[in-house]
Design a protein that fits this description.
With about 160 residues, the chain is mostly helical. About 80% of the residues lie in helices and about 0% in strands. The radius of gyration is 18 Å and the shape is elongated. The chain binds protoporphyrin IX containing FE.
């Protein structure tokens, strides 16, 4: 068996994994927190992305919108990732054969690359175009790419229980 399979089996058989999986309330509470984290992260990020795309909040400077939303978006992602790892821990061995789970992780990775490109590339010149109702092409591409990739993460996350 592969190292990944052995590791997943270890998590699945662990006291924590078993307790979470077999609990009546803890698993739905963790999954609920996964969705709440999603609402604060991907949900608020959609507003930032639509501002970058020049669709929404066009009278608000981009840096103003991002500055206000950033702590809530990052807090939401922290909750979503922490609860995601717990969900994986409880279901690990069952998730390995699930075709959509790696697809979801690839979308998360691509969305992360887009985020880094924006933060360390596109946003560097933001002071020049922050007040523009329609930002430059690179900023719009980053906004639309983020919207599409995080939507794909949400849809693939929702498909996990159906394709298991
Ligand atoms: C920020 C990124 C993430 C988003 C937006 C996201 C979104 C979602 C959504 C919408 C669901 C469906 C929930 C439902 O069916 O009620 C889900 C389920 C799930 N997520 Fe995530 N997720 C993220 C990150 C992660 C990570 C990093 C992991 C694990 C490493 C993970 C593991 C899971 C698992 C195992 C399920 C299935 C739970 C079940 O079968 O009921 N997620 N996710």
């Amino acid at each position: 068996m592969s190292i990944l399979h052995d590791f997943a089996q270890l998590l699945y058989d662990s006291d924590f994994g078993t307790a979470l999986r077999e609990s009546q309330y803890a698993f739905p509470v963790v999954e609920g927190a996964h969705l709440l984290g999603l609402a604060f992260s991907v949900g608020l990020l959609a507003f930032a992305d639509l501002r970058l795309a020049g669709v929404l909040l066009r009278d608000e400077p981009v840096l103003h919108v991002l500055g206000q939303l950033r702590p809530f978006i990052l807090g939401g992602f922290a909750i979503t990732f922490a609860t995601g790892v717990m969900l994986f821990w409880a279901m690990s061995i069952k998730l390995l054969p699930n075709p959509i789970f790696p697809v979801k992780l690839i979308f998360i990775l691509l969305a992360g690359v887009n985020f880094l490109w924006f933060e360390f590339g596109v946003a560097r010149g933001a002071a020049e175009w922050s007040d523009c109702p329609v930002p430059p092409v690179r900023a719009r591409v980053a906004g639309w790419t983020s919207l599409v990739l995080w939507s794909a993460v949400v849809i693939s996350g929702r498909l996990i229980p159906y394709l298991g």
